[in-house]
Write a structure and sequence with these properties.
The protein is an alpha+beta fold. The chain has one domain. It is globular and about 45 Å long. The termini are far apart.
């Protein structure tokens, strides 16, 4: 986990274990653009995620990496509370991990 200003960057595995109280404290969490493989080497993932507490709710984004560091936002949702946002955020993290695993199986 790394901190840059008011943004916390963590692995997708860490995202899966996030708690609502942690998001409220951290306020802005983003997943890494890379994932360490079984050999300890960083490999690119197809997308990274963001969850950010705002004044009137919680915004989540799923960003598709085009050619690192370039990306496009492929999905964005806004929720009134952290609990609802976190459920979708974790689901997206699981999908990105599954997508990465399927790509590895094809290789």
């Amino acid at each position: 986990m790394h901190y840059y200003g008011n943004e916390t960057i963590m692995s997708l595995e860490q995202v899966l274990r996030l708690r609502p109280s942690e998001i409220r404290i951290l306020e802005w969490v983003r997943s890494y653009e890379f994932l360490e493989n079984s050999y300890g080497v960083d490999e690119a993932v197809p997308a990274f995620l963001e969850i950010k507490c705002e004044e009137d709710g919680v915004r989540i984004r799923r960003n598709r990496i085009i050619d690192f560091p370039d990306y496009v936002c492929e999905a964005e949702q806004f929720f009134p509370d952290v609990e609802a946002a976190l459920a979708v955020f974790v689901k997206w993290a699981e999908e990105v991990l599954q997508e990465k695993n399927q790509a590895e199986e094809r290789e």
